[in-house]
Q: What sequence folds into this?
């Protein structure tokens, strides 16, 4: 049956985060990846998480900490779209410096500045969610389909340790905690 649970995954790289990441949304994403069908994903969600009047019992992401490992605010660099004709121009990437050496890339301005992003990010030992539902099915689904969370998750930010999604039953339901 459905029970209250605490869900965690181990975070390897900083998570770029500027709006809430909610468990129901993460599960919908995983179900959509599984079924490749919006209607099937939508109808499967209530079989995993408790629902009351359209509200699913899943919290927002909470950074999990340990006494020796707090949440650390940092930056996660990212690279924007590169254009073949301008960014990969021979004159920019050929060894055209003094003595046939490569010229160092200028980071504080110039042609490369517009392509380099520096996103606010957070690093913590874990990402944590509270939920009320079938925790075993949820962890199996997330371990298969969700290997990173947050913005730029497909580009190295918010990477999770492989198969690290894990849940344990708890006595009280904290699934409606919303940190927004």
A:
């Amino acid at each position: 049956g459905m029970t209250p649970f605490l869900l965690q995954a181990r975070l390897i790289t900083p998570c770029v985060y500027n709006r809430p990441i909610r468990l129901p949304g993460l599960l919908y994403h995983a179900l959509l990846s599984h079924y490749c069908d919006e209607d099937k994903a939508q109808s499967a969600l209530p079989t995993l998480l408790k629902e009351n009047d359209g509200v699913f019992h899943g919290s927002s992401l909470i950074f999990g900490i340990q006494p020796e490992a707090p949440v650390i605010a940092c930056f996660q660099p990212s690279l924007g779209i590169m254009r073949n004709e301008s960014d990969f121009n021979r004159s920019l990437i050929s060894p055209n410096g003094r003595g046939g050496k490569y010229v160092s890339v200028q980071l504080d301005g110039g042609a490369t500045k517009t392509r380099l992003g520096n996103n606010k990010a957070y690093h913590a030992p874990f990402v944590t969610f509270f939920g009320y539902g079938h925790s075993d099915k949820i962890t199996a689904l997330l371990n298969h389909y969700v290997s990173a969370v947050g913005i730029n998750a497909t580009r190295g930010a918010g990477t999770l340790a492989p198969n690290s999604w894990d849940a344990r039953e708890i006595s009280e339901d904290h699934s409606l905690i919303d940190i927004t």
Q: What stands out?
A: The chain has a mean pLDDT of 87. The radius of gyration is 21 Å.
